[in-house]
Write a structure and sequence with these properties.
GO molecular function, one term: oxidoreductase activity
Keywords: FAD, Flavoprotein, NAD, Oxidoreductase
CATH architecture of the largest domain: 3-Layer(bba) Sandwich
Radius of gyration: 23 Å
Largest sheet: 7 strands, mixed
Bound molecules: flavin-adenine dinucleotide
Protein name: NAD(P)/FAD-dependent oxidoreductase
Number of domains: 2
Number of strands: 25
Enzyme class: oxidoreductase
Helix content: 25-40%
Family: Belongs to the NADH dehydrogenase family.
Strand content: 15-25%
Length: 457
């Protein structure tokens, strides 16, 4: 009989933070020291910053899906599913597997890294009609959808329908929205040459944001430079504006304009995964409030990081918390692994401190703006820094090779604008992709764990 006496470390989420943590734990702990388990609905780590390039067809989806089983050295047990609740008192994580079974996973240490979901507001029609860009499926779906609008516009005889199919609205002037608008505009600009009956002048992209500036984190000069590049390429930018209403065939802006469109892309920020709400613990704007060493105060063995946690930003000071970026998530992942090991071995944990390295924004082709270590770059040097940074941050050699090959192939041969149709049979809006109703309430978690405990006795 195999009696497990090793401490159980459970990591929730296989994103930047979770995978970095697991790999470090595997390297630094002997198999006899702890049992490692990872809960994740996907069998890969998604390199999210390159998602706009998948949506625009520069990269294939597989190239940014980094396998969790690439090496025989990976010894962590993987539970394929999503955590739907955590009972901090009983130290049990409730999981729904991808087969739909409910599994209770006890732990001694838990590392919460489930990331974030798209932030939406109570705007009529939004979740029914908007597309998000947070998953590989969404990127693939969006690409097919945009190409299908060109196909349908080309085939239709009604000028009003054609015009509406060729207008596209992106909400969110942060780096995700700006890159998405820029990359997809390039896609339609290049694709329309293959549709001789379509008037390229009918294709209109709108990028809107309620904030007064595009990507304020870039600073005044670079933000303006990005804006100029996009405007030159024909993207209409409206700042201080949001969506008042979304419909299947038109979108109403808060300034009263009604834009006929079948494509509303919503990238207006993120909120912590709903899993955090199941803990019944203190949050800061939805993110779990943790100490600088990423421990949850008052709960031994509970750590949280990445987009789902409000980790104090000691490099900035005051009450700042680390922004939800891959840059922080990845480094926090490594750091939290060291702190879990320290806790396990009875040593003191260390606070997380990281000086922001800056921002890179790929606007497609040779257009880019970057601010590495405070230096402001645009054009080719910015693009080289942007691609170089992402390329070096990809975890595996095979992912690096796939991405580089895709970049080269795209630069030489361009795109064939093929719709895959894999998901054509199902709708693909925000509501369909984010599974927000999968989670339990804190009371349901507790009741479930107590019931399971009674049944086991
Ligand atoms: C389009 C786009 C562009 C971006 N560009 C940049 C950029 O240029 N630079 C930058 O620094 N950041 C960028 N970001 C932000 C960056 O990707 C995130 O900050 C980063 O991914 C956060 O890491 P994480 O590990 O917290 O979450 P994620 O990487 O999102 O990982 C979370 C993981 O948890 C899993 N999960 C979710 N719920 C559950 C659950 N209930 N149970 C188990 N597993 C779960 C998910 O499947 C996922 O694998 C971008 C984001 C987007 C969407």
């Amino acid at each position: 009989m195999d009696i497990v006496t090793r401490p159980r470390i459970l990591v929730v989420g296989a994103g930047f933070a979770g995978v970095e943590c697991v790999r470090r734990l595997e390297r630094r702990l002997t198999p006899g020291e702890a049992e490692l388990t990872l809960v994740t609905p996907m069998s890969y780590q998604l390199y999210l910053p390159l998602l706009p390039q998948v949506a625009s067809g520069v990269l294939t989806p597989q190239s940014i899906a980094i396998s969790l089983r690439r090496s025989e050295k990976y010894r962590t047990r993987i539970i394929p599913g999503g955590a739907i609740g955590v009972d901090l008192r009983a130290k049990v994580c409730v999981i729904r597997t991808i087969a739909g079974d409910i599994v209770d996973e006890p732990y001694d240490y838990i590392v919460l890294a489930p990331g974030s979901v798209t932030r939406t507001f109570d705007i009529p029609g939004l979740t029914d009609h908007a597309f998000g860009l947070k998953s590989l499926a969404e990127a693939a779906y969006l690409r097919d959808h945009v190409i299908s609008q060109l196909d349908l516009a080309d085939a239709c005889t009604d000028p009003a329908e054609r015009a509406s199919r060729l207008q596209f609205v992106v909400v969110g002037g942060g780096y995700a929205g700006t890159e998405t608008a820029a990359c997809l505009q390039r896609l339609t600009h290049a694709a329309v040459k293959r549709y001789p009956r379509l008037d390229p002048g009918l294709i209109k992209w709108h990028l809107i944001d309620i904030a007064p500036k595009l990507m304020p984190e870039l600073g005044e000069k670079l933000g303006r430079s990005a804006q100029e590049i996009l405007t030159r390429r024909g993207i209409e930018i409206s700042l201080g504006v949001s969506i008042a209403k979304a419909g299947a065939e038109e979108v109403t802006f808060t300034d009263g304009r009604v834009v006929p469109t079948r494509t509303l892309i919503w990238t207006a920020g993120v909120v912590a995964s709903p899993l955090i709400g199941t803990l019944d613990a203190e949050t800061v704007r939805g993110r779990l409030a943790v100490n600088a060493d990423m421990r949850l105060p008052g709960h031994d063995g509970v750590f949280a990081l990445g987009d789902s946690a409000a980790v104090p930003d000691l490099a900035k000071g005051d009450d700042a918390v680390c922004p939800p970026t891959a840059q922080h998530a990845l480094r926090q992942g490594r750091h939290v692994a060291e702190n879990v090991i320290a806790a396990l071995r009875g040593r003191p944990t260390r606070p997380y401190v990281h000086q922001d390295l800056g921002l890179v924004v790929d606007l497609g082709g040779t257009d880019a703006v970057s601010k590495p270590l405070g230096y402001e770059l645009h054009g080719l040097p910015a693009q080289a820094v942007a691609r170089g940074y992402h390329w070096s941050a990809l975890r595996t050699g095979v992912a690096k090779t796939r991405v580089m090959t895709n970049w080269l192939l795209n630069a030489v041969a361009g795109d064939d604008f093929v719709r895959t149709g894999f998901q054509a049979h199902r709708p693909g809006n925000l509501r369909d992709f984010e599974y927000l109703d999968a989670y339990l309430t804190p009371e349901q978690v507790r009741a479930h764990v107590e019931e399971a405990g009674r049944a086991a006795r």
